[in-house]
Amino acid sequence: MLLQLALPFMFTMIIHAADSLSYALRLGGLRTKRITIALSLSGMLLLISRTSNMAQGPLLGSMVDKANGADSSMLQTQLHWILGAAAVGTVIAILMFPTMVRWSSRLVVHLEKAGSIPGMLASLCSMNTMKNALHYISWPRFSMLQTCFAGNLPRRLMVLNMSVTAIYTVGVLATLYAAYLNPEQAMAASQSSGLINGMATILLTLLIDPRIALLSDRSLRGEIRLEQMNRVYGCMLMSRLAGTLLAQLLLVPFALWISLIVGWI
């Protein structure tokens, strides 16, 4: 049982750490005024996240299959542990964020010089480059947290980001739990994650991504200070962490909602 839970926990942690660190790449692009190159680098983190997601799916399905006929509270506890892995991954990203911002600033320059990601990766494999990377390691300080929450906060953006993160985090797990609760309609329930994640996609596409893009463009034009973008991305990280914690409360309600919908089909 421990191994059965450990692998999905690890992959969930990697997924959320990689997704959260994409903010560092964007901020590194703003610092070097090469935001488009930085966004292309985010594909590397996206690849890590998607690969982990592919490995996670069968493991979660196997967990639900093995739980058939057992006490539902045991499966529910396991799913809550996996949701906890999302919070752990986000905390890891927060701890790595200052270092990742500095590294991403250098990665953007290396990519521009190399002209391709394979060429950039080849240039990074030199011993001198690896040694230099150690000098850019920086741990978060409490003063950074104070600065992040000083002054006016983008409260609406934070609430939206928290909601989207919570929905995305719990979506697949809620449908799997609904499939367990409705074994006679397990296939319909397991394919219903779009009913949950669709809401998050709409919010992300219409309300969050355009706002971040507008702020980034204003920063590049010098209309807002880079320190303000530091605060914005810091707030986005903290709201992501809050979203992973909120997901713990949404698991059962969303599973019951999916169960109600598949019952009408």
Task: Reconstruct the topology from this structure.
Elements: H1 2-32, H2 35-67, H3 72-114, H4 117-124, H5 127-134, H6 142-148, H7 155-181, H8 186-190, H9 193-220, H10 226-264
Helix pairs in contact: 1-2, 1-3, 1-10, 2-3, 2-7, 3-4, 3-7, 3-10, 7-9, 7-10, 9-10
Notes on the structure:
This protein is mostly helical. It is 86% helix and 0% strand.
> How many β-strand runs?
0
What is the percentage of strand-forming residues? under 5%
Provide a count of the helices. Answer: 10
Whole-number mean pLDDT: 85
What percentage of residues falls in helices of 4 or more residues? over 70%
Largest sheet: none
Uncertain regions spanning at least 5 consecutive residues: none
Radius of gyration: 20 Å
**H and E string:** HHHHHHHHHH
Can you tag this structure with a few keywords?
265 residues, mainly alpha, 10 helices, 0% strand
Summarize the structure.
Helix content is 86%, strand content 0%. It is built from ten helices and no strands.
